[in-house]
Amino acid sequence: MRPPRPVSPLPMTESDGAGGRHGGPRADDAAQKTCKHTDSAADVLLQKKGGAGIITLNRPKVLNALSFSMIQQIYPQIKTWEQDPETFLIIIKGSGERAFCAGGDIRAIANAGRAGDRMTRDYFREEYTLDNAIGTCKKPYVALIDGITMGAGVGLSVHGHFRVATEKTVFAMPETAIGLFPDVGGGYFLPRLSGKIGYFLGLTGFRLKGRDVLKAGIATHFVESEKLPDLEKDLIALKSPSKENIADLLNSYHMQTKIDQEKEFVLDEHMEKINSIFSANSMEEIVQKLKQDGSPFAMKQLETINKMSPTSLKLALRQLREGASMSLQEVFTMEYRLSQACMRGHDFYEGVRAVLIDKDQSPRWKPAVLEEVSDEFVDSCFKPLGNNDLKL
After folding, report:
1. What is the pLDDT of residue 6?
2. H-state helical runs in 164-309
3. Do 56 and 95 form a contact (C-beta atoms < 8 A)?
């Protein structure tokens, strides 16, 4: 869950500095749950304008990385607006020029895990509960995904009714590079994209940019970045709008956007390969097929996959295959089990060390090769957690 790549396969937020900030609920949380909360020093702004509830992720220095405190503030506000007859839609956006939300507060989670702190349980439980609330929200939910949108940022947007991408949008699910898996409901939305493109995105962390985010089916609309303030004003000005009124307004902005209109989808020429290779039943078979294919595209993907955590790759492939026939709630329950398996394991902490702390980009995964990640171990990561299971 995670920002721009030096050499790393990951953006991983410079949430570096965010480390110890959010080890648990803060004393002033309760006060911050009201929508009067617009103090610009706050990490999330919650405002009511006209008939719209507006959520602004407000940590631009760390690319709006999603902290535990932010999750705790956003969830009750969405629930309140959902029940409020005077709130007709919810808009979520990021502050600053660079990102909607580049991911989760990974460093804080890793620190908590090393210290045996319960935040490793609470963060994922609360985050997935928030993402599910977005996916089941009764009010139209509009995410303005302008800039970097990765990991946790995808969870805050992709399950909502409307996702508006711009020419500045950069989408990725790069978790396998840090010993995690494409969570936040990736097990639900990725296998439902056309062909096997979701499997490809989830396993390789491939980045989609601009209009390609729409073409892949992740965004619902594409609007010029500089037009977003006008779009927001027009959304706020709608009088008691229905979902259809909102869709009409978004469609009108979308139709006026000519940027990259003629450009072919970046993966178009590779779709046949992607569909054939990523339909394999195992990671070993995917690797075998990439080697057999031998094209520059296949070799590039092989090189990427070889850098990823072998454990993460196996967990992710099974997560996507199983998630394809699950409800969103079943997916979050499965992903919570996987998150806790990763917190108990080695690779997540090693991935964070290599990408975020020492920045040597040379993680030493254990096991180091796919063949050594046993089916029994993978099975154990999917086992129910009894009373600790996520119940939605």
Report:
1. 32
2. 186-189, 197-204, 211-215, 228-237, 243-255, 271-277, 283-293, 296-307
3. yes
